[in-house]
Amino acid sequence: MKLTDSIQYLKGVGPKSAENFEKLGISNLQDLLLYFPFRYEDFAGRSVFELMDGEKATVIGEVVTPANVQYFGRGRNRLSFKIKQEEAVISVTFFNQPYLADKVELGKEIAVFGKWEQAKQALLGMKIIAQADDGFSPVYHLKEGMKQATLVKAIQAAFDAEVLSDVEENLPDYLLEKYRLMPRQEAIVAMHFPKDMEAHKQALRRVKFEELFYFQMKLQALKNKEKAARFGRKISFDALALQEKQDSLPFELTAAQQKALDEILSDMKSDYHMNRLLQGDVGSGKTVVASLSMYATVLSGLQSALMVPTEILARQHAASLQSTFPELKIALLVSGLKVAERKEILKELKSGAIQMIVGTHALIQEGVEFHDLGLVITDEQHRFGVKQRKTLREKGQNPDVLMMTATPIPRTLAITAFGDMDVSIIDELPQGRQAITTRWVKHEQMPEVLKWIAEELTKKAQVYFISPLIEESEALDLKNAEALYSELTAYFGSQVEIGLLHGRMKNEEKDAIMQDFKSAKLDVLVSTTVIEVGVDVPNATVMVIMDADRFGLSQLHQLRGRVGRGTKKSYAILVANPKSESGKKRMEIMCKTQNGFILAEEDLKMRGSGEIFGLRQSGMPEFLVADLVNDYNILEVARQEALEVFKRPDEPVHRWLIQQSQVEGEFD
Ligand code: ADP
Ligand code: MG
């Protein structure tokens, strides 16, 4: 047989069962051989004292009673016997497998794989393990209509059909030697039927490298292609005018801000099309970098747009841009506008009268047309899907693109996840910032907390209270916020001005409340998570988060980032009586560090790479064996090697690799 032969011609597989293989993406013998298990059932014997109720494991013991089979009629029966492991005697039961009785010999040692039932001190048997297959057996991802045993049999049949020798090596010798990787054919055998732990480990290392290397090859190819094809437009602006504007700001840029700005401006000036991710921790000052880039665009006679995830943020950015650039025509586009107002904005946007625009999703609706859009920026980019960013981009003719994110991603992961982008990082905070002191308190301690806050308030502090989060229910969130608001009003009395902010308010109301808090008319702001991202009130110094364990790490980090934005000492109080271990752990980590990168890594460990930062939205492929978090080191090496290949693409072995990676198909 040949590798390309359809699976249906394999011994034991017919046209009908072939359909079930198809569902797993297996159509020919090669596909089958490369369909690797995602884990292995460990058949090493365990002590029953360490087993948990319901756990599946192998228990080895001496058979102390003869096998007894009871028949119930209709072909149903039960095989039972007892085994002794150290001082424990365990009942073992198998249902409807009477023939196993032959394998149970009184006084002999036996290994039974099964499910542990703690209360009965019994093992519900699933398999008797022969001495020969101790070690482990593969477990494959399945879909309906397919059984593990069927798949294993088919793979065995494929090996029997002797097609393995036709599988070609797809990594060059120099890589195999440099990283001591197992040859491909050997690895395939050891992936399915490892002879021992070490063989399995080496096979896995080889397969992961292969997977990540070709992933990186494709990313590099994509990047090169885009660089070549994507002639963007040159945005030529008056550098002196820009510098003057920068000098007039109330503060100097930090070195990291300046570096990021320079990288952006140099992309904009070139005819290379900018596609850049700007990362910076909460409060690192991304906004001013964005505004100066927008200003440069306007100086060159083009329009620029800033898209943000919430209305509050849109209003805040529009106001701050207008005060930085009073001479410009800057518009705000959100969904709640009056018809006439919206119409006027759309008209002026199309005519080019509006030079900068800030908005929410409203910006990407139909009917929003620009005169000539030169630069598109998205803030908190992970809140937007790939499609939405694309729609905004298509409102112009190949505008430059800048995406900002405050949820920092470890660098390599960022480059990987957003591999066709360039990355700028703001890795320092503006001068004069003090560390935010973070405390975790229990609900019982609220009286003390309130007493302390009352004192802070007499010192003119401004305080946020975040009400508990009720998943999926905005209505309950609101109820919580209202309850908290009345409690605090009752507690602090009329001396303290308290405002309430939530998602269901009308725009003007939200606006008015935020304005009052900004101008310190309000001392306390009780809010739902609507203020989670971006909100900037430098004078606020205390953040109290109720039921903090209901929030994820990155959300807590964002919320805490609402304070510590000025030069005054700031505090975050996490009020929580966590019921889960992970809740407890999150509180501890928050108290320990304020570094967004460390928190992001912890979050990554706790939740896995797919869940966070909208990585899933970013069009990442799913990996068969590799894992971006745990195989980080391999990923980094694979990236280096892929870069090397594209540095000298004409070398024969490199040319061959580039061809190989094209064979593997493109992803979108
Ligand atoms: P983020 O990166 O979280 O979006 P912002 O851009 O909102 O941060 O900036 C946070 C605060 O720091 C704002 O009040 C801003 O005016 C201030 N800020 C930004 N850059 C500097 C700087 N170089 N020096 C002092 N303050 C700055
Ligand atoms: Mg921001």
Topology:
Layout: H1 15-23, H2 29-33, E1 39-42, E2 56-63, E3 68-73, E4 76-85, E5 88-95, E6 109-117, E7 122-128, E8 136-139, H3 148-160, H4 173-178, H5 184-192, H6 197-229, H7 239-247, H8 255-269, E9 275-280, H9 286-299, E10 303-307, H10 311-324, E11 330-333, H11 339-351, E12 356-359, E13 373-378, H12 386-393, E14 400-405, H13 411-417, E15 422-426, E16 437-441, H14 446-458, E17 462-466, H15 474-492, E18 498-501, H16 507-518, E19 524-527, E20 540-546, H17 553-560, E21 571-575, H18 581-592, H19 596-607, H20 632-647, H21 652-663
Bound molecules: adenosine-5'-diphosphate (ADP) and magnesium ion.
**What proportion of the residues is helical, as a percent range?**
25-40%
Residue fraction in strands: 15-25%
Quaternary form: single chain
Bound molecules: adenosine-5'-diphosphate, magnesium ion
Mean pLDDT: 86
